[in-house]
Amino acid sequence: MNFALQNTLELLLIIGLGLLLQKKVAKQDLKGVKTIILSIALPAVIFVALLKIKLESSLIVFPLLALTFNLVMLASSKYLLNATLSKKEESKRRTVIMLIPSLAPGLSCFPFIVLYLGDDSLALAALADVGNKIFVLILLYMLAMNWYRKRSLQDAKASTSSKLKSLALSLLKEPINMVIIVGLLLLSFGLNMASLPEFLQNTIGSLKTIMTPLILLFIGMAVRLKGGEFGTIVSLLARRAGITFILSAIFVFAFPALSPALILLLVVFPQSSCSFWPFAHMSAVSSFEDNDGQKEPTFDINFAVNILACSLPFSTILIIGIFSFSEYFMNPTIILSAGVFLTTISFIPSLVSKIKRAREEKLESDNCRSYASFNATPQTSDES
Protein backbone atom coordinates (compact mmCIF):
# COMPACT_ATOMS: atom_id res chain seq x y z
CA MET A 1 0.00 0.00 0.00
CA ASN A 2 1.15 3.58 -0.76
CA PHE A 3 2.94 5.10 2.28
CA ALA A 4 0.96 8.36 2.19
CA LEU A 5 -2.34 6.51 1.80
CA GLN A 6 -1.47 4.17 4.68
CA ASN A 7 -0.67 7.14 6.94
CA THR A 8 -3.91 8.83 5.89
CA LEU A 9 -5.98 5.77 6.79
CA GLU A 10 -4.27 5.60 10.19
CA LEU A 11 -5.07 9.27 10.83
CA LEU A 12 -8.68 8.90 9.75
CA LEU A 13 -9.09 5.86 12.01
CA ILE A 14 -7.93 7.85 15.07
CA ILE A 15 -10.22 10.76 14.09
CA GLY A 16 -13.05 8.22 13.80
CA LEU A 17 -12.35 7.05 17.36
CA GLY A 18 -12.64 10.67 18.42
CA LEU A 19 -16.04 10.89 16.75
CA LEU A 20 -17.18 7.83 18.70
CA LEU A 21 -16.11 9.54 21.94
CA GLN A 22 -18.17 12.69 21.29
CA LYS A 23 -21.14 11.59 23.42
CA LYS A 24 -18.87 10.69 26.33
CA VAL A 25 -16.86 13.92 26.32
CA ALA A 26 -18.50 17.24 27.29
CA LYS A 27 -17.57 20.45 25.47
CA GLN A 28 -15.89 21.92 28.57
CA ASP A 29 -13.68 18.81 28.81
CA LEU A 30 -12.33 19.56 25.33
CA LYS A 31 -10.76 22.76 26.65
CA GLY A 32 -8.56 20.65 28.91
CA VAL A 33 -7.48 18.43 26.01
CA LYS A 34 -6.74 21.52 23.91
CA THR A 35 -4.66 23.00 26.75
CA ILE A 36 -2.56 19.81 26.99
CA ILE A 37 -1.96 19.89 23.22
CA LEU A 38 -1.02 23.57 22.95
CA SER A 39 0.85 23.87 26.26
CA ILE A 40 2.72 20.55 26.52
CA ALA A 41 2.65 18.16 23.55
CA LEU A 42 3.01 20.63 20.66
CA PRO A 43 5.74 22.76 22.36
CA ALA A 44 7.73 19.55 22.98
CA VAL A 45 7.53 18.63 19.28
CA ILE A 46 8.51 22.14 18.16
CA PHE A 47 11.39 22.27 20.67
CA VAL A 48 12.89 19.02 19.35
CA ALA A 49 12.41 20.19 15.75
CA LEU A 50 14.03 23.59 16.38
CA LEU A 51 17.15 22.09 17.95
CA LYS A 52 17.73 20.05 14.79
CA ILE A 53 18.07 23.04 12.45
CA LYS A 54 21.03 25.28 11.73
CA LEU A 55 20.39 28.89 12.76
CA GLU A 56 20.75 31.21 9.77
CA SER A 57 19.74 34.82 9.14
CA SER A 58 17.84 33.70 6.03
CA LEU A 59 15.23 31.99 8.26
CA ILE A 60 13.64 35.40 8.94
CA VAL A 61 11.99 35.01 5.53
CA PHE A 62 9.51 32.45 6.91
CA PRO A 63 7.72 34.71 9.45
CA LEU A 64 7.80 37.52 6.88
CA LEU A 65 6.18 35.25 4.28
CA ALA A 66 3.45 34.24 6.73
CA LEU A 67 2.75 37.86 7.67
CA THR A 68 2.63 38.84 3.98
CA PHE A 69 0.15 36.03 3.33
CA ASN A 70 -2.04 37.24 6.22
CA LEU A 71 -2.10 40.78 4.81
CA VAL A 72 -2.89 39.61 1.27
CA MET A 73 -5.74 37.46 2.57
CA LEU A 74 -7.00 40.39 4.64
CA ALA A 75 -7.30 42.45 1.45
CA SER A 76 -8.90 39.49 -0.35
CA SER A 77 -11.44 38.96 2.41
CA LYS A 78 -12.48 42.61 2.20
CA TYR A 79 -12.98 42.72 -1.56
CA LEU A 80 -13.77 39.14 -2.56
CA LEU A 81 -14.32 36.59 0.21
CA ASN A 82 -17.36 38.33 1.68
CA ALA A 83 -19.03 38.76 -1.72
CA THR A 84 -21.44 36.03 -0.65
CA LEU A 85 -22.88 38.31 2.03
CA SER A 86 -25.13 41.27 1.26
CA LYS A 87 -24.16 44.82 2.25
CA LYS A 88 -26.95 44.80 4.82
CA GLU A 89 -25.13 42.03 6.75
CA GLU A 90 -22.35 44.33 7.95
CA SER A 91 -21.65 42.47 11.19
CA LYS A 92 -21.17 39.19 9.30
CA ARG A 93 -18.94 40.86 6.73
CA ARG A 94 -16.70 42.26 9.48
CA THR A 95 -16.66 38.81 11.11
CA VAL A 96 -15.47 37.22 7.86
CA ILE A 97 -12.73 39.85 7.44
CA MET A 98 -11.44 39.05 10.94
CA LEU A 99 -11.46 35.25 10.70
CA ILE A 100 -10.63 34.32 7.11
CA PRO A 101 -7.04 35.72 6.96
CA SER A 102 -6.04 34.12 10.28
CA LEU A 103 -4.27 30.78 10.68
CA ALA A 104 -4.23 28.17 13.46
CA PRO A 105 -1.52 25.72 12.30
CA GLY A 106 -1.02 24.24 15.77
CA LEU A 107 -4.23 22.22 15.71
CA SER A 108 -4.82 21.73 11.99
CA CYS A 109 -1.44 21.63 10.27
CA PHE A 110 1.59 20.91 12.49
CA PRO A 111 0.66 17.27 13.33
CA PHE A 112 0.51 16.38 9.64
CA ILE A 113 3.66 18.32 8.75
CA VAL A 114 5.70 16.37 11.31
CA LEU A 115 4.14 13.07 10.21
CA TYR A 116 4.56 13.51 6.45
CA LEU A 117 7.52 15.92 6.14
CA GLY A 118 9.50 15.45 9.36
CA ASP A 119 10.96 17.65 12.09
CA ASP A 120 12.94 19.97 9.80
CA SER A 121 9.82 21.17 7.99
CA LEU A 122 7.97 21.51 11.30
CA ALA A 123 10.71 23.81 12.62
CA LEU A 124 10.33 26.07 9.58
CA ALA A 125 6.54 26.05 9.99
CA ALA A 126 6.91 27.03 13.66
CA LEU A 127 9.09 29.99 12.67
CA ALA A 128 6.54 31.03 10.05
CA ASP A 129 3.83 30.94 12.70
CA VAL A 130 5.62 33.77 14.54
CA GLY A 131 4.61 36.15 11.74
CA ASN A 132 1.07 34.80 11.82
CA LYS A 133 0.91 35.29 15.62
CA ILE A 134 1.90 38.95 15.25
CA PHE A 135 -0.94 39.38 12.76
CA VAL A 136 -3.69 37.61 14.75
CA LEU A 137 -2.71 38.89 18.19
CA ILE A 138 -1.85 42.51 17.42
CA LEU A 139 -2.95 43.68 13.97
CA LEU A 140 -6.39 42.04 14.07
CA TYR A 141 -6.98 43.33 17.58
CA MET A 142 -6.19 46.88 16.41
CA LEU A 143 -8.58 46.40 13.47
CA ALA A 144 -11.38 45.16 15.76
CA MET A 145 -10.92 48.05 18.18
CA ASN A 146 -10.80 50.55 15.32
CA TRP A 147 -14.20 49.33 14.11
CA TYR A 148 -15.53 49.44 17.67
CA ARG A 149 -14.31 53.01 18.28
CA LYS A 150 -15.87 54.21 15.04
CA ARG A 151 -19.24 52.75 16.03
CA SER A 152 -19.13 53.49 19.75
CA LEU A 153 -20.12 56.71 21.49
CA GLN A 154 -17.38 56.26 24.11
CA ASP A 155 -13.64 56.72 23.78
CA ALA A 156 -11.84 53.38 24.15
CA LYS A 157 -8.22 54.57 23.83
CA ALA A 158 -7.26 53.76 27.41
CA SER A 159 -8.67 50.25 27.27
CA THR A 160 -7.03 49.69 23.86
CA SER A 161 -3.61 50.68 25.19
CA SER A 162 -3.85 48.40 28.23
CA LYS A 163 -5.19 45.56 26.08
CA LEU A 164 -2.27 45.83 23.65
CA LYS A 165 0.15 45.53 26.56
CA SER A 166 -1.64 42.42 27.84
CA LEU A 167 -1.59 40.94 24.33
CA ALA A 168 2.16 41.54 24.08
CA LEU A 169 2.64 39.74 27.39
CA SER A 170 0.38 36.87 26.32
CA LEU A 171 2.41 36.59 23.12
CA LEU A 172 5.59 36.11 25.19
CA LYS A 173 3.97 33.83 27.78
CA GLU A 174 2.36 31.45 25.28
CA PRO A 175 4.12 28.06 25.65
CA ILE A 176 4.78 27.63 21.92
CA ASN A 177 6.40 31.07 21.66
CA MET A 178 8.42 30.49 24.86
CA VAL A 179 9.72 27.24 23.38
CA ILE A 180 10.67 29.01 20.15
CA ILE A 181 12.55 31.72 22.07
CA VAL A 182 14.40 29.19 24.28
CA GLY A 183 15.20 27.01 21.27
CA LEU A 184 16.60 29.94 19.28
CA LEU A 185 18.71 31.04 22.27
CA LEU A 186 20.18 27.54 22.62
CA LEU A 187 20.91 27.42 18.89
CA SER A 188 22.63 30.82 19.06
CA PHE A 189 25.05 29.37 21.66
CA GLY A 190 25.73 26.35 19.45
CA LEU A 191 23.70 23.91 21.60
CA ASN A 192 21.38 21.18 20.33
CA MET A 193 19.23 18.36 21.72
CA ALA A 194 22.27 16.22 22.53
CA SER A 195 23.64 19.03 24.72
CA LEU A 196 20.77 18.63 27.20
CA PRO A 197 20.85 16.21 30.16
CA GLU A 198 19.68 12.72 29.20
CA PHE A 199 16.68 12.75 31.58
CA LEU A 200 15.47 16.00 29.96
CA GLN A 201 15.89 14.54 26.47
CA ASN A 202 13.84 11.49 27.45
CA THR A 203 11.11 13.59 29.07
CA ILE A 204 10.73 15.84 26.03
CA GLY A 205 10.78 12.79 23.74
CA SER A 206 7.98 11.14 25.73
CA LEU A 207 5.85 14.29 25.58
CA LYS A 208 6.49 14.54 21.86
CA THR A 209 5.06 11.08 21.13
CA ILE A 210 1.59 11.88 22.53
CA MET A 211 0.99 14.86 20.24
CA THR A 212 -0.27 13.27 17.02
CA PRO A 213 -2.79 10.76 18.46
CA LEU A 214 -4.03 13.32 21.02
CA ILE A 215 -4.68 16.02 18.46
CA LEU A 216 -6.42 13.62 16.07
CA LEU A 217 -8.71 12.46 18.87
CA PHE A 218 -9.38 16.12 19.69
CA ILE A 219 -10.39 16.85 16.08
CA GLY A 220 -12.82 13.94 16.13
CA MET A 221 -14.32 14.95 19.48
CA ALA A 222 -14.54 18.66 18.65
CA VAL A 223 -16.37 18.45 15.29
CA ARG A 224 -19.98 19.50 15.92
CA LEU A 225 -21.40 21.03 12.75
CA LYS A 226 -24.70 22.90 12.71
CA GLY A 227 -27.10 23.59 9.88
CA GLY A 228 -28.54 26.94 8.82
CA GLU A 229 -25.47 28.86 7.71
CA PHE A 230 -23.50 25.71 6.81
CA GLY A 231 -23.70 26.24 3.01
CA THR A 232 -22.60 29.89 3.24
CA ILE A 233 -19.68 29.05 5.53
CA VAL A 234 -18.45 26.13 3.40
CA SER A 235 -18.53 28.34 0.29
CA LEU A 236 -16.46 30.98 2.13
CA LEU A 237 -13.95 28.38 3.32
CA ALA A 238 -13.71 26.91 -0.21
CA ARG A 239 -13.04 30.39 -1.60
CA ARG A 240 -10.40 30.95 1.08
CA ALA A 241 -8.74 27.64 0.17
CA GLY A 242 -8.94 28.43 -3.55
CA ILE A 243 -7.26 31.83 -3.23
CA THR A 244 -4.62 30.27 -0.97
CA PHE A 245 -3.83 27.61 -3.58
CA ILE A 246 -3.48 30.34 -6.22
CA LEU A 247 -1.05 32.32 -4.02
CA SER A 248 1.00 29.17 -3.33
CA ALA A 249 1.09 28.34 -7.05
CA ILE A 250 2.33 31.84 -7.92
CA PHE A 251 5.15 31.48 -5.39
CA VAL A 252 6.15 28.03 -6.65
CA PHE A 253 6.11 29.30 -10.26
CA ALA A 254 8.36 32.19 -9.19
CA PHE A 255 10.86 29.88 -7.43
CA PRO A 256 11.00 26.60 -9.40
CA ALA A 257 14.16 25.37 -7.64
CA LEU A 258 12.38 24.76 -4.31
CA SER A 259 12.67 21.30 -2.79
CA PRO A 260 9.58 19.02 -2.78
CA ALA A 261 9.29 19.26 1.03
CA LEU A 262 9.40 23.07 0.92
CA ILE A 263 6.78 23.18 -1.86
CA LEU A 264 4.41 21.02 0.19
CA LEU A 265 5.07 23.19 3.24
CA LEU A 266 4.18 26.33 1.24
CA VAL A 267 0.98 24.63 0.09
CA VAL A 268 -0.30 23.17 3.38
CA PHE A 269 0.71 25.82 5.94
CA PRO A 270 -1.60 28.53 4.50
CA GLN A 271 -4.44 25.97 4.42
CA SER A 272 -4.52 25.89 8.24
CA SER A 273 -7.87 26.46 9.92
CA CYS A 274 -9.05 29.87 11.12
CA SER A 275 -7.53 31.05 14.40
CA PHE A 276 -9.38 31.37 17.71
CA TRP A 277 -7.67 34.70 18.54
CA PRO A 278 -9.83 36.89 16.25
CA PHE A 279 -12.87 35.35 17.95
CA ALA A 280 -11.39 36.37 21.31
CA HIS A 281 -11.01 39.96 20.04
CA MET A 282 -14.59 39.98 18.74
CA SER A 283 -15.86 38.65 22.08
CA ALA A 284 -14.03 41.46 23.87
CA VAL A 285 -15.66 44.03 21.59
CA SER A 286 -19.04 42.38 22.21
CA SER A 287 -18.60 42.76 25.98
CA PHE A 288 -17.72 46.45 25.53
CA GLU A 289 -20.87 46.93 23.48
CA ASP A 290 -23.00 45.23 26.13
CA ASN A 291 -21.69 47.70 28.69
CA ASP A 292 -22.31 50.62 26.31
CA GLY A 293 -25.84 49.45 25.53
CA GLN A 294 -25.07 49.43 21.81
CA LYS A 295 -27.97 47.87 19.90
CA GLU A 296 -26.27 46.89 16.64
CA PRO A 297 -23.21 44.69 17.29
CA THR A 298 -19.94 45.18 15.41
CA PHE A 299 -19.54 41.42 14.94
CA ASP A 300 -21.84 38.41 14.65
CA ILE A 301 -20.51 36.15 17.41
CA ASN A 302 -22.71 33.15 16.56
CA PHE A 303 -21.61 33.33 12.92
CA ALA A 304 -17.99 33.40 14.10
CA VAL A 305 -18.51 30.27 16.22
CA ASN A 306 -19.99 28.41 13.25
CA ILE A 307 -17.06 29.43 11.03
CA LEU A 308 -14.58 28.12 13.59
CA ALA A 309 -16.55 24.88 13.98
CA CYS A 310 -16.48 24.23 10.22
CA SER A 311 -12.95 25.50 9.59
CA LEU A 312 -11.06 22.86 11.61
CA PRO A 313 -12.54 19.74 9.92
CA PHE A 314 -12.47 21.48 6.50
CA SER A 315 -8.76 22.31 6.77
CA THR A 316 -7.92 18.90 8.26
CA ILE A 317 -9.55 17.02 5.39
CA LEU A 318 -7.92 19.33 2.84
CA ILE A 319 -4.42 18.99 4.32
CA ILE A 320 -4.71 15.19 4.59
CA GLY A 321 -5.84 15.13 0.96
CA ILE A 322 -2.85 17.22 -0.14
CA PHE A 323 -0.38 14.93 1.61
CA SER A 324 -2.16 11.80 0.35
CA PHE A 325 -1.66 13.00 -3.26
CA SER A 326 1.58 14.88 -2.62
CA GLU A 327 3.14 13.90 -5.97
CA TYR A 328 0.44 15.97 -7.72
CA PHE A 329 0.55 18.96 -5.36
CA MET A 330 4.24 19.53 -6.05
CA ASN A 331 3.23 20.61 -9.57
CA PRO A 332 2.43 24.37 -9.63
CA THR A 333 0.04 23.90 -12.56
CA ILE A 334 -2.08 21.45 -10.54
CA ILE A 335 -1.93 23.73 -7.49
CA LEU A 336 -3.16 26.64 -9.63
CA SER A 337 -5.88 24.49 -11.21
CA ALA A 338 -7.09 23.39 -7.76
CA GLY A 339 -7.20 27.03 -6.67
CA VAL A 340 -9.19 28.17 -9.70
CA PHE A 341 -11.58 25.21 -9.35
CA LEU A 342 -12.30 25.81 -5.64
CA THR A 343 -12.66 29.57 -6.13
CA THR A 344 -15.08 29.06 -9.02
CA ILE A 345 -17.34 26.50 -7.34
CA SER A 346 -17.42 28.58 -4.16
CA PHE A 347 -19.53 31.18 -5.98
CA ILE A 348 -22.15 28.64 -7.13
CA PRO A 349 -24.22 28.62 -3.87
CA SER A 350 -24.38 32.42 -3.74
CA LEU A 351 -25.20 32.58 -7.47
CA VAL A 352 -28.03 30.06 -7.06
CA SER A 353 -29.28 31.95 -4.02
CA LYS A 354 -29.29 35.26 -5.91
CA ILE A 355 -31.16 33.72 -8.86
CA LYS A 356 -33.72 32.21 -6.50
CA ARG A 357 -34.11 35.52 -4.66
CA ALA A 358 -34.52 37.42 -7.95
CA ARG A 359 -37.24 35.00 -9.08
CA GLU A 360 -39.07 35.38 -5.77
CA GLU A 361 -38.85 39.18 -5.99
CA LYS A 362 -40.09 39.10 -9.60
CA LEU A 363 -42.98 36.82 -8.65
CA GLU A 364 -43.88 39.10 -5.74
CA SER A 365 -43.68 42.14 -8.02
CA ASP A 366 -45.92 40.47 -10.63
CA ASN A 367 -48.46 39.60 -7.95
CA CYS A 368 -48.48 43.19 -6.73
CA ARG A 369 -49.03 44.49 -10.28
CA SER A 370 -51.86 42.00 -10.85
CA TYR A 371 -53.50 43.03 -7.59
CA ALA A 372 -53.13 46.74 -8.40
CA SER A 373 -54.51 46.20 -11.91
CA PHE A 374 -57.49 44.29 -10.53
CA ASN A 375 -58.31 47.08 -8.08
CA ALA A 376 -57.94 49.74 -10.75
CA THR A 377 -60.47 48.05 -13.12
CA PRO A 378 -63.94 49.78 -12.96
CA GLN A 379 -66.58 47.46 -11.49
CA THR A 380 -69.96 47.31 -13.37
CA SER A 381 -73.21 47.33 -11.44
CA ASP A 382 -76.19 45.00 -12.07
CA GLU A 383 -78.68 47.50 -10.61
CA SER A 384 -81.60 48.40 -12.85
TrEMBL record:
Keywords annotated in UniProt: Membrane, Transmembrane, Transmembrane helix, Transport
The keyword Lipid biosynthesis is annotated on this UniProt entry: no
Transmembrane segments: 6-21, 33-51, 57-75, 96-117, 123-144, 175-194, 206-225, 237-255, 261-280, 301-323, 329-352
Domain of life: Bacteria
Keyword Transmembrane: yes
Organism from which the protein derives: Euzebyella saccharophila
Protein name: Permease
Residue runs in coiled coils: none
